[in-house]
C-alpha cells in the first residue's frame, strides 16, 4: 500500500520511517516530515484546512491508498481516503466506531456533545450505544474510564478535535494508535478481497446540512469573568426549563448516567465540572427535531462558545435568531456579553 504521511513539521515523522517504511509501505510523497518549531507549511492540526488540502492533493497525485495528518505531538490524527475525502471530526469518529463495533459489538462510544444527530444514528444503527458528554478530551476519556468501572463496556472515546482513546490502549489519547487501527482494517479489507477503500465504511454517514460556531466575550473585570459566564449559561438552562424558548429542551442520552444536557453526572461519583455547558435539542411543528444548540464556558478564555447544527436549510439562522431575541435580549444577558458575532450572523 502507498500511504502519505503529513507530519506538519511536528514530531510525527517517525511514523513514516520507524513504522510504515519498516513494514514495507510505500511512503513516497509524504509531507513535512522534518520537525521545525516554526511550522513553515501549515498548522500541524488534523482540523486545519490547509493541512487536509495538502494531504488530499498528495493522495490524489500519487494514487495513494491513505493520507495521514498528525498534530504536533501525535496525540491527534485525521486521515484522507483514496478518493481524497478528508476524514476528521464526526467522520473520523464514525470510522473508528465502525472498526471498533466490528470487534466489540454493542459497546458504548463516548464523544463530546458537539457531534451530530447523524453520528448517533450511525453508531446505534450498528448496534452501539452513544454517550454524549462534556467538551474536553480529558472529560471524554475520563467518562469512558468511569463507565468501564461501572460495568458499562466502553471501548472508544473520541472528541471532534481528533483526540481519541481506546480501552485496549490503556485509555491513552494516541493519534498514531488510531491510525494503526485504520491501517489494520484497510489490510483486513484487502485480504478479504474488497476493492473498496477505507472511506466505504462511512459511506452511509449523513452530513449535517449546516454547522455554525460563534463566540461571546464576557465584558467584565477578569476576576469576575468566570462567574459571569456561569451566570449566563445557568440562565440559559433556566429559560429552557421554564419553556421560554418554544421547541427547545435540554438534551440527554439515555442510560449512560448522563442527563441535564448530557453534561452533568448523576451517578454516585460525579466528575468535577471544569467548565459549565449545556446542549439543547430544537424542534418545530413542520420539521420535528431538526437541530441542536451547545453553549459552553471556555476553560482558558473569558468567553462563551456557541455551536449550532441543523439538518434543514436555514435552521442555524432560525436557532441563532431565537437565541438572540428570546434569550440574550429577553434575559438581559447582553448587558455583560459581547454579542456582536451573534448579531452579525443573524442580521447578515
UniProtKB/TrEMBL annotation:
GO terms for cellular component: chloroplast stroma. GO terms for molecular function: phosphoglucomutase activity; phosphomannomutase activity. The keyword Zinc-finger does not apply. Keywords: Phosphoprotein. InterPro entries: A-D-PHexomutase_a/b/a-I/II/III, A-D-PHexomutase_a/b/a-II, A-D-PHexomutase_a/b/a-III, Alpha-D-phosphohexomutase_SF, Phosphoglucosamine_mutase. Its cofactor is Mg(2+). The keyword Phosphoprotein applies. It holds the Pfam family PGM_PMM_II. It catalyses: alpha-D-glucose 1-phosphate = alpha-D-glucose 6-phosphate. SUPFAM superfamilies: Phosphoglucomutase, first 3 domains. It comes from the Eukaryota. GO terms for biological process: carbohydrate metabolic process. Residues 2-84, 88-188 form the Alpha-D-phosphohexomutase alpha/beta/alpha domain. Signal peptide: none annotated. Its EC number is 5.4.2.2. This is phosphoglucomutase (alpha-D-glucose-1,6-bisphosphate-dependent). The lineage of its organism: Eukaryota, Viridiplantae, Streptophyta, Embryophyta, Tracheophyta.
Amino acid at each position: 500500500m502507498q500511504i502519505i504521511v503529513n507530519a506538519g513539521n511536528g514530531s510525527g515523522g517517525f511514523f513514516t520511517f520507524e513504522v510504515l517504511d519498516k513494514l514495507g509501505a510505500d511512503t513516497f510523497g509524504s509531507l513535512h516530515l522534518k520537525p521545525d518549531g516554526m511550522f513553515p507549511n501549515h498548522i500541524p492540526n488534523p482540523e486545519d484546512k490547509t493541512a487536509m488540502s495538502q494531504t488530499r492533493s498528495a493522495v490524489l497525485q500519487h494514487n495513494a491508498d491513505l493520507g495521514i495528518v498528525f498534530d504536533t505531538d501525535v496525540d491527534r490524527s485525521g486521515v484522507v481516503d483514496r478518493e481524497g475525502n478528508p476524514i476528521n471530526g464526526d467522520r473520523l469518529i464514525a470510522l473508528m466506531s465502525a472498526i471498533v463495533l466490528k470487534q466489540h459489538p454493542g459497546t458504548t462510544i463516548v464523544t463530546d456533545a458537539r457531534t451530530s444527530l447523524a453520528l448517533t444514528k450511525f453508531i446505534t444503527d450498528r448496534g452501539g450505544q452513544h454517550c454524549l458528554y462534556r467538551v474536553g478530551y480529558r472529560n471524554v476519556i475520563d467518562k469512558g474510564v468511569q463507565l468501564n468501572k461501572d460495568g458499562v463496556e466502553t471501548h472508544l472515546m473520541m472528541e471532534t478535535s481528533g483526540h481519541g482513546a481506546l480501552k485496549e490502549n490503556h485509555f491513552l489519547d494516541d493519534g498514531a494508535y488510531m491510525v494503526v487501527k485504520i491501517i489494520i482494517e484497510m489490510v483486513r479489507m484487502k485480504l478479504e478481497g474488497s476493492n473498496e477503500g477505507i472511506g466505504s465504511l462511512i459511506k452511509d454517514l449523513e452530513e449535517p446540512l449546516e454547522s455554525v460556531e460563534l463566540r461571546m466575550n464576557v465584558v467584565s473585570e477578569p476576576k469576575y469573568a468566570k462567574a459571569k459566564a456561569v451566570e449566563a449559561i445557568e440562565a440559559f438552562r433556566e429559560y429552557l426549563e421554564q419553556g421560554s424558548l418554544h421547541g427547545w429542551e435540554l438534551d440527554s442520552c439515555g442510560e449512560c448516567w448522563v442527563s441535564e444536557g448530557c453534561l452533568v453526572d448523576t451517578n454516585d461519583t460525579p466528575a468535577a465540572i471544569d467548565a459549565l455547558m449545556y446542549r439543547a435539542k430544537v424542534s418545530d411543528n413542520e420539521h420535528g427535531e431538526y437541530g441542536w444548540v451547545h453553549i459552553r464556558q471556555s476553560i482558558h478564555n473569558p468567553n462563551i462558545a456557541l455551536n449550532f447544527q441543523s439538518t434543514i436549510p436555514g435552521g442555524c439562522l432560525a436557532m441563532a435568531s431565537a437565541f438572540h431575541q428570546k434569550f440574550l435580549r429577553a434575559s438581559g444577558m447582553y448587558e455583560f456579553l459581547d454579542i456582536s458575532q451573534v448579531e452579525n450572523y443573524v442580521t447578515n
